[in-house]
Amino acid sequence: MNERVVIFDTTLRDGEQSPGCSMSVAQKLRMARTLAAMGVDVIEAGFAAASPHDFDAVREVANTVDGPIICSLARCNDHDIPLAARALSSARRRRLHVFIATSPIHREHKLGMSRTEVLERAVAGVRMAREFCRDVEFSAEDAIRTEPDFLVDVMSAVIEAGATTINVPDTVGYTTPEEMGRIINHLKRHVRGIDKVVISAHCHDDLGMAVANSLAAVAAGARQVECTVNGIGERAGNCALEEVVMALRTRADLYGLDTGIDTRRLYPASRQLAAIIGGFVPANKAVVGDNAFAHEAGIHQHGMLANRETYEIMRPEDVGISRSTLVLGKHSGRHALAERVRELGFVLDDTEMEKLFVRFKDLADRKRQVFDADIEALVAGQPGDQGGPWKLLSMHTTSSLGEGQLPSAAVALEDAEGQIVREAATGDGPVDAALKAMARATGIDFELTSMRVRSVSEGEDAQGEAALQARINGNQWSGRGVDTDIVAACAQAFIEILNRASRSPDVVDSAAVAATGSPQPARAAAVN
Ligand code: KIV
Ligand code: ZN
Q: Exposed, middle or buried, 401 (CB in 10 Å: 0-12/13-18/19+)?
């Protein structure tokens, strides 16, 4: 039996900080259940003190998700730590993750603190966290750019104060594998009590080395990796969970280490997350991209036919890509659908399964054959958990060609209080008109910055998947929609954008949204 690397998933905290990727509480819960079924060891469910929304998300995950340790981030102060502890109180297994920046640039320009003050805060934070919880992780934010002797002092002091995991974040994605290995070795040699705690790596991907740096940390003795599904996160993102897990598994000959991850859940989780945050997974993305197992060149195809291992180091089925020739249709029943959903690696409870069946029947009425990709799209984008406040009730659009004709759209939206708002607009095309009408109804100004539409499966009746991005109040938001009608898919994607933006304090504060309920206090400064 190999030694185990702890997989600490921060999709719901650091990952959610990717521009436009905020998730509703229901979406976070769904993702958390998927992560638990995948076998992650720790779920960082949020930063409870950042906003009431973050607090609720951590509390709900702690309440309902069993199996992994549930964790909340907190700054080293007496406001964040008790709040995080309260949000986690119902978790069967919980962890408090406290952090403070240690590098000279952060000390001077962000915190305005001396080395001694930072060290005292770190120790006080860990001590306070230990009053609430036995499992305490300490992160030295921007550890990589911290003076090595000071990092040793801080880590030694927090271990003495009771930290059980010490995390080494490359907050700005600056390090290289060689340097990461050196830093971990330096800590192992000089930090007092280091053999009693777990060493963790938290790498950002600004130079495209987050996975390589995490693996270098592991090779040097780290036994926890912090990562996110699809590598989402602030700026260039975090270490990608699926990549680091498959590297450890595929090169077990080099690392000799295991994870507790059921790798067949990687692909479904990747698709589910992409649907939730409203984006596509790049086709050439390692492990889970559409082309990750495609062999185009003739010489490769020839080799593959002779022996898969000539060009394939992992099998698609090992990461959960299971394509069957089985096609469902309007006569398929609940059981057949449930079976296929399970085989595709998704975890749904009875209520979700029932809702999915209704949507499946609706789709099967409009589409003769329902392929795996259609089912994936249906499961991944369960409506109703987007968190409101707006619902798109109906839409009618017209297209036109020729002089003097204007494409138009009429929409009916329902706000949080159940009031129906009707609006109409003309535009360059039906999508443009629909978006303008919806923006008018909500009173939100927007600038569409990207729009991509693709076919989910084959055939003339295939569903279209739309991924839109828009700038609202200086922030970028994403949304995704799926429908056999691509104008409707775009409208669904846009309502998701309007809802994400409406829940943001910036938009609420700007009073652009009249019907979103009480404004929320601004988030505490984001951390990556
Ligand atoms: O990148 C970072 O430094 C972080 C810490 C708060 C762990 O996300
Ligand atoms: Zn981070």
A: exposed
User: Among residues 207, 248, 205, 249, which one has the least CA distance to residue 230?
Assistant: 205
Strand extents, DSSP E, 294-390: none
Q: What is the CATH number of domain 3-277?
A: 3.20.20.70
Give ligand 1 pocket residues (Cβ under 6 A). 14, 99, 139, 141, 167, 169, 171, 202, 204, 527-528
With tokens 């996110």, the residue in question is: 228
Atom of ligand 1 nearest to the CA of 13: 8
| Fold held by 391-527 | Double Stranded RNA Binding Domain (3.30.160)
Over residues 220-230, the mean pLDDT reads 98
Q: What are 205-220's pLDDT values in tens digits?
A: 999 999 999 999 999 9
Crossing angle for the helix pair 241-250 and 210-220, to the nearest 10 degrees: 50
Q: Residue 201: nearest ligand to its CA?
A: 1
Q: For 365-394, how does the pLDDT look when each residue is reduced to its tens digit (9 = 90+)?
A: 988 888 888 888 888 766 556 677 999 999
In CATH terms, the fold of domain 298-380 is: Recoverin; domain 1 (1.10.238)
What does the DSSP assignment read for 391-440? EEEEEEEE---STT---EEEEEEE-TTS-EEEEEEE-SSHHHHHHHHHHH
Alpha carbon 275 to chain centroid, angstroms: 10
For 233-267, give the DSSP string: -STT-B-BHHHHHHHHHHTHHHH-EE----GGGHH
pTM: 0.86
Which residues, 6 or more positions from 116, have their beta carbon under 8 angstroms from its beta carbon?
Answer: none
Ligand nearest to the CA of 101: 1
Instruction: Give the end-to-end CA distance of the chain in Å, rounded to a whole number.
Output: 35
- Tokens 């300490």 sit on residue: 138
Q: Which amino acid is at 153?
A: D
Give the distance (Å) from ligand 2 centre to CA of residue 49: 17
With H, G, I as helix, E, B as strand and everything else as coil, classify residue 296. Answer: coil
**DSSP one-letter code for 111:** I
* Local confidence band at 520 (pLDDT 50, 70, 90 cut-offs): very low
Give helix then strand counts, H and E, for the chain. 18, 16
Pairing mode, if any, of strands 165-170 and 136-141?
parallel
Ligand 1 pocket test, candidate residues 18, 141, 158, 203, most atoms within 8 A of CB: 141
pLDDT exceeds 50 at position 516: no
Query: What are the domain boundaries of the chain?
Result: 3-277, 298-380, 391-527
What is the rounded CA–CA span in Å between residue 85 and residue 128? 10
Residue 297, pLDDT score: 66
Q: Which residue from 316, 354, 311, 347 is spatially nearest to 333, judged by alpha carbons?
A: 354
CA-based nearest residue to 128, from 190, 183, 85: 85
Domains 3-277 and 298-380 share a fold: no
Tokens, residue 207: 């130079």
**Residue 468, H or E segment:** strand 464-472
